[in-house]
Amino acid sequence: MATTSDIRNGLCIRYNNDIYKIIEFLHVKPGKGPAFVRTKLKSVTSGKVIDNTFPSGRKLDDVRVETKKFQFLYPEGDSFHFMNVEDYNQITLEVNAIDNPGLLKEGEVVTVLINAEDEMPLSVDMPATVILEVTHTEPGVKGNTATNATKPATVESGAIVNVPLFINEGDKIKVETEKGTYKERVKE
User: Fold this and answer.
1) Most buried one in 91, 95, 100, 101, CB count within 10 A?
2) How far apart are CA 149 and CA 147, in angstroms?
């Protein structure tokens, strides 16, 4: 059993007959009244995100999880195939178990949270940033802007990312996986 003081990003808890992963939290101590914890919970089975407030000190039923490294092999419909990098066993996960599946390219190594009780995979944690090649973007016209303007660019995984005007096809860019935003251009 855990309490609200143990809440952190990535903690998995049992709540309303489902397993949820905490993706955001905020401890609030108002001037009047008791303290509480405001959370954003993501269901690991359906991918649905809910907001919930726990009173301070409440007991939570936490789920013991293990993390293992898996390599992304290929997508197939709404399923994604992964291979354990240690023992080469393969697993298949649904698209809702992955936070930002559009930024996943073949060969990428991710961390998979596995329920220690029944060995079922719960969710996929992407690396903080991924490096992707731009496959299509319109050429930027010099001098048509006074501020930081962006344009849409399609990357090798198929996702569309807004990038600065100086990015061209064939450039490699670093993308922040949590928000799906451009971070910087990568030099070879």
Assistant:
1) 101
2) 6
Q: What is the CATH number of the domain that holds 149?
A: 2.40.50.140
- Give residue 98's domain range: 65-125
Q: How far apart, in Å, are the Cα atoms of 22 and each of 58, 162, 184?
A: 15, 28, 29
Q: Give residue 130's Cα distance to chain centre.
A: 12
SS3 95: helix
pTM comes to 0.72
Q: What is the pLDDT of residues 48-66, one digit of tens each?
A: 889 999 998 889 888 888 8
Per DSSP, the three-state class of 166 is coil
Task: Give the C-alpha distances (Å, rounded to integers) separating 181 from 95, 155, 177.
Answer: 20, 12, 7
SS3 7: coil
Tracing tokens 């419909």 back to the chain, one arrives at 77
pLDDT score for 144: 61
The answer to whether residues 94 and 42 touch, using CB atoms and an 8 Å cutoff, is no
Domain edge (last residue) among 75, 106, 125: 125
For residue 14, list its beta bridge partners: 19, 61
Rounded Cα gap, residues 108 and 32, in angstroms: 49
